[in-house]
Amino acid sequence: MADLGRATIEEFHAQRKFPIAVVLDNIRSLNNIGSIFRSADAFAADRVVLCGITATPPSVEIHKTALGAENSMDWTYYPSTAEALDALRAEGWLIAAIEQAADSVSLEDFRPDPDRKIAIVLGHEVYGVDQSVVDAADLTLEIPQFGTKHSLNVAVTAGILLWHLTANRLNQN
Questions:
Q1: 90 contact partners, CB below 8 Å, separation of at least 6
Q2: Residues spanned by the domain of 104
Q3: Spatial contact of 127 and 151, defined as CB atoms under 8 Å apart
Q4: Which of 6, 73, 111, 115 is most buried per CB count within 10 Å?
Q5: Partners of 45 in beta bridges
Q6: How many whole angstroms separate alpha carbon 172 and alpha carbon 162?
Q7: Does the pTM of the predicted model rise above 0.90?
Q8: Quick check: is 6 in a domain?
Q9: Per-residue three-class SS string for the chain
Q10: Gap between the Cα atoms of 151 and 149, Å rounded
Q11: What CATH number is given to the structural domain containing 69?
């Protein structure tokens, strides 16, 4: 690992992060939660926000897929996603629900404002982002799909979004 030149946890905590928060709205799978922590670490997201039934570290099951990212990532927990959104909005975050909706913006058309922090809200594996959360968001983003299935795994979705948002910020510099 030393040959890869990766930051230590202490160095990672001190480094500048991309202004991206990953909000988990009632995610039930601890494996998905861990995987999202790992992706958030890989793309140096600012934080992970856990809401509702979403489990929190420490957890052996989260650790199985996070592989320590639950220790490197800053995270907070809120009993409800609405409370989390209120707190993020008070800090100036743009709230983007990730969901299939009539007024959604297709991800390939979305270019984040380089001067704005963005919080992406990912929903329950079966039910998606709660409708009240979608209604409270500033916008809805959708990943285009071309196969027979109508959804992606939430951890895969997180990885796609984190790559898109960081790549756009890297290309703007």
A1: none
A2: 15-172
A3: no
A4: 73
A5: 18
A6: 16
A7: yes
A8: no
A9: CHHHCCCCHHHHHHCCCEEEEEEEECCCCHHHHHHHHHHHHHCCEEEEEEECCCCCCCCHHHHHHHCCHHHHCCEEEECCHHHHHHHHHHCCCEEEEECCCCCCEEHHHCCCCCCCCEEEEEEECCCECCHHHHHHCCEEEECCCCCCCCCCCHHHHHHHHHHHHHHHHHHHC
A10: 6
A11: 3.40.1280.10
* Tokens representing residue 67 in the block: 């592989």
pLDDT grade, residue 169 (50/70/90)?
confident
Q: Which two structure tokens, joined as six digits, stand for 93?
A: 């975050």
8 domain-assigned: no
Considering its fold, how many domains does the chain have in total? 1
2 located within any domain: no
Enter the tokens of residue 89.
């909005």
